[in-house]
Each structure stands twice: as structure tokens, then as C-alpha cells.
């Protein structure tokens, strides 16, 4: 299978602190890959490097030839609080280079069930701010979608809708790479799981294989 996104020895250090050891990871069409591990394990660092939001101090990131866009939704919503949901979507659609930012914003407001009024994004509920964050990442039908704790602030119905949207990414031969603390989500939705501990991938395989991993891995 052709790859969509790959990390080749990607690493990140802060002085003497090794936040992410040299890491290899490949994401292929149709996959939903889960990153699990305790806080501080390196999940967010790896996702930010793959998204191009954080420079690596070692290694390289490779994009497959079929990749048109990499979508990115960080753990903390990356939006402008003084703009409305629509204005945020229009702005990011322009930055993404979409042909019709107004239409893209309208479609995403409806898709994510977000208010279309003039209220500031900072005044949205926590759940709506997270849905806006996810909507920004979904703009432009990305080939690869990188998500950091995407369901943390969502209620059960919002989570169900999100996984429906992510299923659509997979169906069009895109891929999703997401960090989570929910082993239930891993079991239900992931085709593959990678476990990080202290900045290193210590396990990679099918979710069912976690039962045969070491107790340290199972406890993440």
C-alpha cells in the first residue's frame, strides 16, 4: 500500500530534555491510527511535528504523492476568540487556499452543527469550541487528519457525530491519526495503535494485541 504520511527518525529535544526520541511511523490510506500513552509521553509532540506546527530537531517527515492537505486539530483549540465561528472558518479556508471560502465556511458550520451568528468564538461553549477546532481541521477534505484528544470536550452525541465524519475520511482513502486516553475508542475505531512511553514507541500493532503487551503498556 502507498503511504500518506511517514515519520523517519523524527525527534524533538529541548536542551537536554528529550521530548521525543527518534521515531518511525507510517500512515497509509484507509487507516485510523491511535496514539496512546500517559501525559508527557510525546503524543502531542509527534502530532505537532507531523502537522508542521513544530519543527523537529532530527529526522524527516514524508508526505505521499497523493496527499493534497494535512488537517490538524490540536488539543487546545487553535482559533481566534474575537472572531465568530463563521469568520474563523472563512479565514482558515482562505489560508488553506480554497476556491470559495464563504461556501466552505457555510458547509462546515452545518456539518459540525455550529452557530452561524456573529457571537465571538471565545463565548462558545467548550464543546462548540472543540467542534469548531475540528471543523478547521476538516476544511478542504484533508488526505490525512491529525487529531489531539479530539473527543475530550464532546458529549456522547457529539462524539458519535465526530466518528461518523472520521469514517468518511477513511472511506475516501484518507487516514486519521489521533491521540487519545480512551482505550474504548481505540478498540472501537482504530485499525492500528502505537503506544508511547517517555518519548518512545514501545508497542505498535492491532488494538486486540494490546492484551498481549506488557503490563506497563496496558496501563497507559
Structure commentary:
The chain is α/β, with parallel strands linked by helices. The chain has 2 domains: 1-67 and 144-161 and 173-220, Rossmann fold; 82-142, no CATH class. Helix content is 33%, strand content 26%. The protein contains 7 helices and 9 strands. The chain has helices at residues 43-51, 85-96, 101-112, 126-138, 156-171, 183-189, 215-218, and strands at residues 5-14, 17-27, 32-36, 58-63, 70-73, 144-148, 175-179, 192-197, 200-205. Strand 1 and strand 2 form a beta hairpin. Helix 3 crosses helix 4 (126-138). The longest helix is centred in the last third of the chain and has 16 residues, at 156-171.
Task: Pick out its properties.
single chain, alpha/beta, six-stranded mixed sheet, three-stranded antiparallel sheet, globular
Which helices and strands, and how do they pair?
Layout: E1 5-14, E2 17-27, E3 32-36, H1 43-51, E4 58-63, E5 70-73, H2 85-96, H3 101-112, H4 126-138, E6 144-148, H5 156-171, E7 175-179, H6 183-189, E8 192-197, E9 200-205, H7 215-218
Parallel strand pairs: 3-7, 3-8, 5-6, 6-7
Antiparallel strand pairs: 1-2, 1-4, 8-9
Helix pairs in contact: 2-3, 3-4
- Count of helix runs: 7
Please name the CATH architecture of the largest domain: 3-Layer(aba) Sandwich
Instruction: Please give the CATH class of the largest domain.
Output: Alpha Beta
Q: Which structural class is indicated by helix and strand composition?
A: alpha/beta
Overall mean pLDDT stands at 91
Radius of gyration, whole Å: 17 Å
Give the DSSP E fraction (strand runs of 2 or more residues). 25-35%
Q: Please give the domain count.
A: 2
Taken from the alpha-carbon principal axes, the silhouette is globular
Total beta strands? 9
Largest sheet: 6 strands, mixed
Helix content: 25-40%
CATH superfamily of the largest domain: P-loop containing nucleotide triphosphate hydrolases
The secondary-structure element order is: EEEHEEHHHEHEHEEH
Please list the strands of the largest sheet in the order they lie side by side: 5-6-7-3-8-9
CATH topology-level fold name of the largest domain: Rossmann fold
Point out poorly predicted stretches: none
**What distance separates the N and C termini?**
30 Å
